[in-house]
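TEACHING EXERCISE
Course module: macromolecular assemblies
Task: Read the component lines below, then compare them to the predicted structure of the full complex.
Student: A.B.
Group: 4
Components provided:
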Amino acid sequence: MIQVRDLVFDYLGHRALHGVSVDIPKGTVIALVGPNGAGKSTLMRCMAGLDTPLSGSITVGGVDVQEHPREVHTKLGYLSDFFGLYQELTVQQCLSYAAAAQGIADKHIAKRVQDVARFLNLTDKLQSLASNLSRGQRQRVAIGQAIVHMPQVLLLDEPASGLDPEARADLSALFRTLQAKGMTLVVSSHILSELDEYCTHILSIRDGRVSRFASLAATATGAEGVIKTLVQIQLAAPAPQLAGLLGDYEVAHLDVQGLAPSTVYLPAGDLAARAVLLARLTAAGVAVCGFQEVRTTLQASYDQTGATGRPGESA
Ligand SMILES: Nc1ncnc2c1ncn2[C@@H]1O[C@H](COP(=O)(O)OP(=O)(O)OP(=O)(O)O)[C@@H](O)[C@H]1O
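Instructor-supplied answer key:
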């Protein structure tokens, strides 16, 4: 969905990105992490077509960001780490303005604003001035402005900074919903545990270079390059029938006594295949008390880059 090739970016007298290359698949949620000054915001701004690299290229949905920025902007939403709202506008006006700026036809704007406000739980704030909103509400309006044109890709630079735990949890739920709608998200944050709740991949940047890009799920490549993920099945009671029920599947570990989880490979991202297996097990009377993808935590994956502590604290 986003293809970055050999990206080099210079600020005056300072190289911020040294040949960054990465392929971000459609429908993924990328945790963009790294120490202060690593180059995360610069990379996002280049992806959004707001900064021009010295060399290299970025395509979004196959469209070159530098050659066709306007076309890319129809596919992409971006929330800067220091976003601003027009204080003297109401929420409705903020969202309508963003919709018009994104080229949504006048006759569709009112409905689109209503839909986005409902989605972000802002309907009762539509007539409030932006200046009268709380930090969390302002954040939601800014996200609303970024998604009002229903982009395929959403870039969010430190979206949760300054939010209380409740607002952060709301934001996590919102990102999961956007992913379920098929959106590809790139989210930067220094709080790994928070990103862990919804991210599928880690993209770690250090000193302007990619130090790690990996799926957080335990994956393997099968025949003809098909990517498979490992799903673990935890039993609440022994189930001798489990071996027969998993006969058609690629089983990595089997424990019919349920002392340890059994693990099975399923096609990556195929939620329907997971649902079919779970239904098959429960229909056969297997007492399943846990059924989930085997994943590494973001912190563990980040630690493999050789970093210590929180990304914001590393040297
Ligand atoms: N406008 C600018 N002029 C000159 N140098 C800049 C500018 N903006 C950023 N830099 C430098 O470019 C490098 C990358 O900065 P960037 O903001 O992309 O890092 P970051 O990973 O987003 O950091 P943080 O986690 O602190 O937000 C840093 O060394 C920074 O000092």
